[in-house]
C-alpha cells in the first residue's frame, strides 16, 4: 500500500484514510491465527466501501456480510479398494493427489502397491484438500514415511485431525 506510520494517527485510521476510495481485494490466509484482528477487518469493511477481503480460516469470521464457503473433506477410496489402481483412482481425494504428486515426480506409478499407498495417504489425512496438497509436496515422501512408520495421524494445532 506504500504507507508509513507517522505516529500522529493510529495505524488503522491511516490505512482507512488511504483505502477509503480504493478498489482493492485483500487476501488474508490462515486468519484463524490472527482472529484477534477481526475488529480491524470490520472497520476496514465498514468504512472502505469498495474494499473487499477474501479470508481463509478454520474459524468463522463473524462480520456482517461475510459469506462462509465450507471446504469439506473429499470422498475417500473405500476400505476394500486395495491393489486395484482403477478403483482407487475413482476417489476424488486420490484424483486431487495424483496431479500434485506427478508434478513432483512425473514417473509416479499408480498401480498395485502404490495405489494402496495413495489410498492410505488420502485416508490418513481424512480427505482434507489442504492436507492432500501438502502430502503431495516435494518434502512429502520423508513426511509420509515417518507417518507410516509411526502410525500417527496428522493433527491441527487445535487438536482436530487434518
Kindly state the mean pLDDT as a whole number?
Answer: 82
| Spatial strand arrangement across the major sheet | 1-2
Q: Which H/E pattern describes the elements?
A: HEHEHHHHH
Structural class: mainly alpha
Q: What coarse outline follows from CA principal-axis ratios?
A: elongated
Distance N to C terminus:
35 Å
Which percent range fits the helix content?
40-55%
Number of domains: 2
Q: Write down the Rg.
A: 21 Å
Range of strand content: 5-15%
Work out the helix count.
Answer: 7
Largest sheet: 2 strands, parallel
Task: Describe this protein's structure.
The chain has seven helices and two strands, in the order H-E-H-E-H-H-H-H-H. The protein is 42% helix and 6% strand. The protein is mainly α. A two-stranded parallel sheet has the order 1-2. Helix 1 packs parallel to helix 2 and helix 4 packs parallel to helix 6. The longest helix is centred in the middle third of the chain and has 13 residues. It has two domains: 70 residues, no CATH class; 66 residues, no CATH class.
Task: Write a concise keyword list for the protein shown above.
two-stranded parallel ribbon, 162 residues, 2 domains, 6% strand, single chain, 7 helices
Write a concise synopsis of the structure shown.
42% of the residues lie in helices and 6% in strands. It is built from seven helices and two strands, in the order αβαβααααα.
Amino acid at each position: 500500500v506504500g504507507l508509513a506510520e507517522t505516529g500522529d494517527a493510529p495505524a488503522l485510521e491511516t490505512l482507512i484514510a488511504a483505502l477509503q476510495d480504493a478498489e482493492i481485494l485483500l487476501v488474508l490466509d490462515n486468519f484463524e491465527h490472527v482472529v484477534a484482528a477481526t475488529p480491524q477487518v470490520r472497520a476496514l469493511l465498514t468504512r472502505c466501501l469498495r474494499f473487499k477481503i477474501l479470508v481463509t480460516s478454520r474459524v468463522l469470521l463473524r462480520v456482517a456480510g461475510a459469506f462462509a464457503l465450507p471446504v469439506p473433506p473429499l470422498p475417500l477410496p473405500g476400505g476394500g479398494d486395495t491393489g486395484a489402481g482403477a478403483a482407487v483412482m475413482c476417489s476424488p481425494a486420490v484424483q486431487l493427489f495424483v496431479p500434485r504428486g506427478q508434478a513432483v515426480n512425473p514417473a509416479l506409478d499408480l498401480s498395485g502397491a502404490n495405489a494402496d499407498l495413495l489410498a492410505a495417504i488420502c485416508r490418513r489425512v481424512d480427505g482434507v484438500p489442504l492436507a492432500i496438497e501438502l502430502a503431495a509436496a516435494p518434502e512429502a515422501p520423508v513426511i509420509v514415511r515417518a507417518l507410516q512408520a509411526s502410525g500417527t495421524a496428522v493433527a491441527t494445532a487445535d487438536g482436530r485431525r487434518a
